[in-house]
C-alpha cells in the first residue's frame, strides 16, 4: 500500500514539476504592447488643471502583465503607505508606484509614473 502511495506522490510531483518548469518565452529584445492611460495636466495631481504652455505634466497608468512585472521588481511592500491594507498592497521606487488590489480580478496590478513635459524629468504619477 505504501509503495502505491509513494509512486502516486512521485508521479504527481513529476507532472506538477514539469508543468511549472515549462520554458517561458525567451527574451528577444523587442518591445511589448501594454494597456495604459495617460493624463496631461498642469499644477499638481492634487489640484490638477488643464495643461498650459508653461506647465505640462503627464501621469501614466499601466495595467496587466507589465504592471505585474514592475510590481514584482520593486518590492518590498510599503506596509505604512497611505491606503495599504490586506486587500491593497503598495510598492514604490523613486517616482514609480505600483499596487496590487486583490479584489479586482480583471486588473489587480496597476503602476503609475509621471513626466514633467517641460523638463523631461521624472515625477510621481499618483497621489494617495
Describe this structure in words.
- Strands 1, 2, 3, 4, 5 and 6 form a six-stranded antiparallel sheet that branches.
- The protein is globular, with a radius of gyration of 21 Å.
- Strand 3 and strand 4 form a beta hairpin.
- It has helices at residues 2-20, 65-73, and strands at 35-41, 57-63, 88-93, 96-101, 109-116, 122-123.
- 22% of the residues lie in helices and 28% in strands.
- It has two helices and six strands; from the N terminus they run H-E-E-H-E-E-E-E.
- The chain has 128 residues and is an alpha+beta fold.
Q: Find the structural class using helix and strand composition.
A: alpha+beta
Write down the secondary-structure element order: HEEHEEEE
Mean pLDDT: 87
* Largest sheet geometry: 6 strands, antiparallel
Distance between the termini: 59 Å
SS elements, strand count? 6
Q: What is the overall silhouette?
A: globular
Brief write-up:
This protein is α+β, with helices and mostly antiparallel strands and 128 residues long. The protein is built from two helices and six strands; from the N terminus they run H-E-E-H-E-E-E-E. 22% of the residues lie in helices and 28% in strands.
Keywords:
128 residues, six-stranded antiparallel beta sheet, 2 helices, 6 strands
List the helices and strands and how they pair.
Layout: H1 2-20, E1 35-41, E2 57-63, H2 65-73, E3 88-93, E4 96-101, E5 109-116, E6 122-123
Antiparallel strand pairs: 1-2, 2-5, 3-4, 4-5, 5-6
Amino acid at each position: 500500500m505504501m509503495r502505491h502511495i509513494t509512486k502516486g506522490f512521485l508521479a504527481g510531483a513529476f507532472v506538477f514539476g514539469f508543468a511549472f518548469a515549462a520554458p517561458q518565452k525567451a527574451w528577444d529584445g523587442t518591445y511589448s504592447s501594454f494597456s495604459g492611460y495617460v493624463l496631461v495636466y498642469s499644477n499638481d495631481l492634487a489640484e490638477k488643471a488643464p495643461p498650459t504652455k508653461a506647465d505640462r505634466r503627464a501621469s501614466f497608468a499601466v495595467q496587466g502583465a507589465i504592471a505585474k512585472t514592475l510590481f514584482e521588481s520593486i518590492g518590498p511592500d510599503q506596509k505604512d503607505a497611505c491606503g495599504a491594507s490586506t486587500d491593497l498592497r503598495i510598492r514604490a521606487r523613486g517616482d514609480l508606484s505600483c499596487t496590487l488590489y486583490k479584489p479586482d480580478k480583471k486588473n489587480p496590478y496597476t503602476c503609475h509614473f509621471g513626466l514633467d513635459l517641460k523638463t523631461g524629468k521624472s515625477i510621481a504619477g499618483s497621489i494617495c
